Amino acid sequence: MTDTTGGPAQLRARLAATGYLADDGLATACHLALALHRPIFCEGAPGAGKTSLATALAEALDAPLIRLQCYEGIDAAQALYDWDFPRQLLHLRAGHDDTDLYDERFLVTRPLLRALRTSPAVLLIDEIDRADDEFEAFLLELLSEYTVTIPELGTVRAVAPPAVVLTSNRTREVHDALKRRCLYHWFDHPDFARELAIVRRRRPDVSEQLARQVTAAVRRIRGADLIKPPGVAETIDWAEALAVLGAEALETDSGVATLGTVVKYHEDLEPARAALREELGA
Length: 282
Ligand SMILES: Nc1ncnc2c1ncn2[C@@H]1O[C@H](COP(=O)(O)OP(=O)(O)O)[C@@H](O)[C@H]1O
Ligand SMILES: [Mg+2]
What we know:
Layout: H1 8-17, H2 24-36, E1 40-44, H3 50-61, E2 65-69, H4 76-79, E3 81-83, H5 85-93, E4 107-109, H6 111-117, E5 122-126, H7 133-145, E6 147-150, E7 154-157, E8 163-168, H8 176-181, E9 183-187, H9 192-202, H10 208-223, H11 232-244, H12 252-257, H13 266-280
Helix pairs in contact: 1-2, 1-3, 9-10, 9-11, 10-11, 10-13
Bound molecules: adenosine-5'-diphosphate (ADP) and magnesium ion.
Domain AAA+ ATPase: 36-202
InterPro entries: AAA+_ATPase, ATPase_dyneun-rel_AAA, CbbQ/NirQ/NorQ/GpvN, P-loop_NTPase
Protein name: MoxR family ATPase
C-alpha cells in the first residue's frame, strides 16, 4: 500500500488523530515502510505500543485491519487457508461426485490469504516470537512474493501488497533473514513528556496532576531492578485505577494499594513499593 499521507510528519498527525502518539523515529519508520512496501518489524517489551500501532495505522489509512495472532505450533492451515472437511463430506454424502470438492465454497480463508485478497489492508502478524522456525521461514517466503499457490485452485497474487506490521515481544530472537526483509523499529519506553501525553490522551478523565505523578512514579519503578518493568499499558492502568478510586493525586497508601496494576510479579512488589516511597519522599 502506498502511503498517501505525505511524509512522516503528516503520518504522525494522522496517527495522533486516532489517539496513537508516535515519536519522530517511529513515524519515519512507518512512512518508509509504506513508501517502500516493506513490512515494519516492531520489537520491544510488552505494553510498549506495538500491537496498537497496527490498529492505529489501519484507522489512519482507512484500511481494514487483518490480524494474525501467532502461537506455538501455528502452521499454514491456521494462518493461510484450510479446507472445510466436514462440509466436503456432507457434499459427498449428498450424492455429489468428488470433482468439485476443492471448490472455493469449501475454502476456509485465514488471515494471510484474506490479506492478499484485500486491498488496501493492514496486516498485523502479532507476536511472531511465539511461532516456531518453520513458520517464520514460511512467512519470509510469503512476505517476499506476496503470492501463494493453492495446489487445487491456483496462484493467488496480492493486487497490492498489504501494509504489514510484525511484532515481537522478544521472548526469543527472530531470524535475521526475516528481519532483513523488514524495516526494524525498537520500541523503548517513551520519554516522560510523551508518556504523559499518552496517558492524558487515553484517559482524559484522569487529572493532569495525577497523570504527571503516576507517569513519574512508573519511571522511578522502572529504574528499580524488576523482573518485569512496567510498560505504557501499566501506566495507563494505574492512572485509571487511582482515578476510579477518586484520587486527584498520588499518595503512598492508595499508591501501594493499587500497585497490582503496575507490578505483576510477587518478587517485584517490594522494590516497587520502595521506589514509590522514594518518589513521594515518604
Ligand atoms: N504511542 C502510544 N500512543 C498511544 N497509546 C499507546 C502508545 N503506546 C502504548 N499505548 C497504549 O498502551 C497499551 C499497550 O499497548 P500495546 O500496543 O498493546 O503494547 P504491545 O503490543 O507492545 O504489548 C495500549 O492500551 C495502547 O493504547
Ligand atoms: Mg502486543
